[in-house]
Design brief:
heterodimer; A: alpha/beta; N-terminal domain of TfIIb; Rossmann fold; Barwin-like endoglucanases; 26 helices; B: alpha/beta; Ubiquitin-like (UB roll); 4 helices; 7 strands
């Protein structure tokens, strides 16, 4: 008998021989942060699917999400800390990486931080990628505790937020907007892909949008490119790049002046439309209380807005108050809109005047102004139309007015946060039924205008702060309408800092996952900026192009190895809007760190201990997480990130639902109430259809900046929206006939995912992902062929090379680039050499930034010339 | 029929405002006349003020605004301008906790108790730049 005969063994049950579990967690391949189930077998994740129990995705997962396994197991992942040996930093300098221990790394970093904190803590810049939403609190808390106001989100914000989030915040108390897919019958998307590719609540919205299409919702997509949304739309309306405001203003004019349809009761009760405007374009105010006045039509007198029943206020007419002629804001708007005729809109946007009229008529008619509907037993206003905008309308110098004009469409017909209309993502929460947390509701602020109930930070969009001589490197304390800033890295940053006597310069950077060299504008500008830092430490999964400027690189855990107690909070960011469920998922480690990888949040706690500001960091976590007794972090106690996560969960959901409970259950959810989703009628706040506050802000900024040699163009601060051209619209150089722009690809997230081999394969199979989209007829006229290699050159002489993909699905003047490709680092061999690096065409300076929200202009007038075949 | 927005629903039927926080009482001295508080400053505010902790004995009936004014006198105008605006409203990015509970309205009075009350003040990042 064989010595190893089965009879000689006590058989182990098969269930104990191997592990086979599905672990609930959260994706991090994009900031959509959909809920996932990771299938772990014998210590290896073999599959990732959507979590059907969660409201965030409802079991759906996009191509990026299911491919996350390949990012995690990439053999090029960093596994131990490294220090550069080559002191010379440059785009193509080899840093000469040398492996070091964590002790060496942390000792050196702590020493640098200790010195700079003692000198001037503002010399530290903390930067993060927006891809991992949950990185916000640990990094904000660290910067807060350290004492620096200088925080950067790399290209995020500049590329997607200063217009979009500002207007969504002021008008909808949310980070973004989306159609109420359950009830909307007619949606117009201006350069937005909500429900069709990446982005906020992406997988949830994809399901909702698909259901809406089946239900019969008509969807019009306005975009230079017949993109992922347009491909599924009822109608694609191509327009000239960056002219969204012109089309929207033309439509607004048709609605109020040609058709004469608008929701008067909404405008009276929920906006500043009745506020009287004087000849100085400012509110006419009560002489003592300074409250804005309205005209009371029943008494024939001017009275404070909050003393007159909404039904009695005048929306139109000329009135005299204390001898001064004035008009309601709506009257001013209506007159202002008259100049935006459909013919004018056609000249600017290239959308035929007849189409402008038709779209306006369809939108206004379908709004069904005055109708109501019963939802869950509650009678609510019903306006089944929505005008949505995002990255396309956002990426321009004129982004503020683009968004303002587009959102006016919703407000003219009362389709704002009501059934079927344009919804903010969860602006109102009454909290969990058992604890009442997390609770937030928009409230009336100065002049009765809405202040958000929840935000991504403490830079609330309204009321704007008072402009002052800036102390922040981004100058946002001067340009108070802006949120993110180009001036940390712009080519004229030193000139700007000198102009405004900024008393210090950046010296040290902590970077989390951002590849700044590729993510904001041209690489040379960013390289010059980064090379000025004395010390940069970076948490990364891979070496990136930015690593060439880093002194110490730290190997971060992937999302499958990380813990985050609030992967989808704030709810205004990436929890699906509309009816359904509130849902609070966590991210939890499915796998152990490989090699010496450590999660960045834990490392930051360690650094605070070493530098000696743990008490500040505990206080900062208390403030950011709103921890209250008995869950507050006390003194300088050394809590782990697990401890902090546990306390946050118990703080919000009760002692019995701490981290252990969430690890087991993955999520907690509860039903949304109609008065939360369709909150607008229930909350006594108004929103501005007339941005009176802009004018004095502009004048104050001009007063500060003018004497220092910076002219502020005040047309950007007019209270009513206009079409203001981008630099590209003013370029008359011979041969520069195309507007270059980039768009989000469904298979890639910014510059992050090109290293993922599955996504790379999908992108190579897609004829557009790594190519430059050009109108086929225009190409024919100029002798360009499909697949031909070309140089694309900007007005300022920057150029990139790529391969043309000809298509009928792009505006004749447009040149479309997918995603943010064109990596050249050896640290990402799969990504290297794929696609086109569009951002390299972008200039980074004041001239290319909005003077109002300091948004970078992302469209470029270009010319195309044939290139040789060599790569 | 165009139903009025403000007639469709009754806002009063739905709780639509934040509940005011219930503040714990503050400390009184042995005679029961004064309130004793310890104000802890964190992050940039501590660096700015060159002080992390300040203990104050205050007359009964003081508000948070009074505490800020007294600290402003001691620590300088820069402290005050970082905490409140010209109208006396607390900056949103300045968070203030009394005995661990957040306070938004600086006119909130401190009330009496036998124990020392901790007041935490911290400046958060206002905007995300870059």
């Amino acid at each position: 008998m064989n010595a190893f005969s089965r009879r000689e063994f006590k058989l182990v049950p098969e269930s104990a021989l191997h592990e086979d579990v599905w672990v609930p967690s959260s994706c991090a391949l994009c900031y959509g942060t959909c809920s996932i189930l990771a299938h772990r077998s014998d210590g290896t994740v073999i599959k990732i699917e959507g979590n059907p129990d969660s409201a965030v995705g409802k079991g759906r997962l996009c191509g990026k999400g299911v491919s996350g396994i390949m990012t995690h197991y990439d053999p090029n992942r960093l596994r131990y800390p490294m220090r550069r040996t080559n002191p010379k930093k440059g785009l193509y300098e080899d840093p000469g990486w040398k492996r070091i221990s964590w002790t060496e790394a942390l000792d050196e970093i702590a020493e640098v931080l200790r010195k700079v904190r003692a000198d001037d803590p503002r010399k530290l810049v903390v930067q993060r990628t927006t891809t991992v939403t949950a990185s916000r609190v640990p990094l904000h808390a660290f910067a807060t505790a350290f004492g620096t106001p200088n925080f950067s989100v790399s290209g995020g914000g500049q590329h997607c937020g200063n217009g979009a989030h500002l207007i969504s915040g002021i008008m909808h108390a949310s980070w973004s907007v989306v159609p109420d897919f359950e009830y909307c019958n007619y949606a117009i998307f201006f350069g937005a892909s909500k429900g069709h590719s990446a982005g906020h609540a992406s997988c949830s919205n994809m399901g909702k949008a698909a259901d809406a299409r089946v239900r019969g919702m008509k969807m019009v997509v306005v975009d230079p490119l017949c993109n992922f949304a347009a491909a599924k739309a009822t109608e694609w309306v191509p327009l000239r790049v960056g002219t969204d405001a012109a089309l929207a203003l033309g439509m607004c004019n048709v609605i109020v002046n040609e058709i004469g349809v608008f929701d008067g009761p909404y405008l009276q009760a929920k906006t500043n439309a009745p506020y009287l405007i004087g000849p100085d374009k400012l509110y006419v105010r009560h002489p003592e209380s300074k409250i804005p006045l309205v005209w009371d039509a029943t008494t024939g007198s001017a009275r404070p807005f909050n003393e007159v029943p909404a039904a009695n206020v005048a929306l139109e007419g000329e009135f005299t108050v204390d001898g001064v002629a004035c008009h309601p804001a709506f009257h001013c708007l209506r007159e202002h809109l008259r100049k935006f005729s459909p013919a004018w809109a056609e000249r600017v946007s290239d959308v035929p005047a007849a189409t402008v009229r038709r779209l306006a008529k369809e939108f206004a008619t379908e709004a069904r102004i005055g109708s109501t509907i019963v939802v869950d037993g509650v009678t609510l206003p019903y306006r089944p139309v929505a005008a949505i905008a995002f990255r396309g309308a956002q990426g321009h110098k004129n982004s503020l007015y683009n968004f303002y004009a587009i959102d006016l469409l919703n407000h003219l017909v009362g389709a704002a946060d009501v059934v079927g209309g344009c919804l903010g993502f969860n602006p109102t929460s009454h909290g969990h039924p058992e604890t009442g947390k997390v609770r937030y509701i928009p409230a009336a602020g100065p002049d009765g205008l809405m202040v958000v109930g929840s935000w991504m930070g403490y830079h609330y969009p309204y009321p704007p702060a008072e402009p002052r001589l800036p102390k922040n490197l981004g100058l946002q304390d001067l340009f108070v309408v802006g949120m993110t800033s180009p001036f940390l890295d712009s080519t004229d940053r030193e000139e700007m800092w000198e102009k405004f006597d900024v008393p210090y310069r950046p010296e040290v950077m902590i970077n989390f996952g951002a590849n700044l060299v590729m993510s904001i504008a041209n690489k040379d500008a960013v390289a010059e900026s980064l090379s000025k830092y004395k010390f940069i430490v970076s948490f990364d999964l891979f070496l990136t192009e930015t690593s060439n400027f880093v002194d110490i690189v730290l190997p971060d855990c992937s999302y499958l190895q990380s813990l985050d107690a609030r992967s989808n909070f704030p709810f205004i960011f990436s929890l699906p809007g509309g009816l359904g469920e509130w849902c609070w998922p966590i991210r939890q480690p499915v796998l152990q760190p490989d090699g010496e990888q450590r999660q960045f949040a834990e490392v930051l706690l360690n650094l605070a201990d070493r530098v000696g500001f743990r008490a500040d960091l505990n206080a900062a976590y208390n403030a950011w997480l709103d921890l209250q007794p008995p869950y507050r972090l006390m003194g300088d106690n050394r809590y782990s990130y697990e401890d902090i996560s546990d306390r946050e969960l118990k703080n919000n959901f009760g002692e019995q639902r701490g981290l252990d409970w969430f690890k087991q259950n993955g999520i907690i959810k509860w039903k949304k109430k109609p008065e939360e989703v369709y909150w607008r009628p229930f909350v006594d706040v108004r929103v501005p259809i007339y941005w009176e506050f802009l004018k004095p802000i502009g004048e104050k900024i001009a007063t500060i900046a003018g004497p220092r040699g910076l002219k502020i163009p005040l047309e950007y601060y007019d209270p009513l929206p206009n079409f203001l051209p981008c630099r590209s619209h003013c370029c008359n150089k011979v041969g520069f006939d195309f507007y270059g722009f980039y768009y989000r690809d469904v298979v890639h997230t910014n510059s992050f995912t090109m290293e993922n081999p599955w996504l790379d394969e999908a992108a190579r199979l897609d004829p557009f992902s790594y190519a430059i989209a050009m109108n086929r007829a225009e190409a024919g006229k100029r002798g360009f062929a499909d697949g031909q290699k070309v140089w694309v050159e900007s007005e300022s002489g920057r150029r990139v090379k790529g391969r043309l993909k000809l298509t009928e699905g792009i505006h004749p003047e447009g040149l479309g680039f997918a995603a943010m490709c064109g990596h050249w680092t050896d640290g990402q061999p799969v990504a290297k050499g794929k696609g086109v690096f569009y951002n390299d065409l972008l200039d980074l300076d004041w001239e290319h930034a909005s003077p109002v929200n300091i948004n970078l202009d992302l469209c470029v007038k270009v010319r195309i010339t044939p290139a040789e075949d060599a790569p | 029929m165009n139903i009025r927005w403000d007639a469709v629903v009754n806002p009063a039927a739905v709780e639509a405002r934040r509940l005011p926080p219930s503040l714990p009482q503050s400390a009184i001295d042995g005679n029961g006349n004064c309130i004793r508080v310890r104000v802890q400053l964190f992050g940039a505010l501590a660096a700015l003020s060159r002080q992390q902790s300040v203990e104050l004995t205050l007359p009964a009936g003081v508000t948070i605004a009074d505490v800020i004014a007294i600290l402003g006198d001691r620590l300088g105008e820069a402290f005050t301008t970082h905490v409140i605006d010209a109208r006396g409203t607390k900056h949103r990015h300045c968070r203030l906790f009394v005995a661990g509970y957040p306070i938004e309205d600086v006119q909130t009075p401190l009330t009496l108790t036998m124990e020392l009350t901790e007041i935490d003040v911290i400046l958060l990042i206002a905007p995300e730049g870059g």
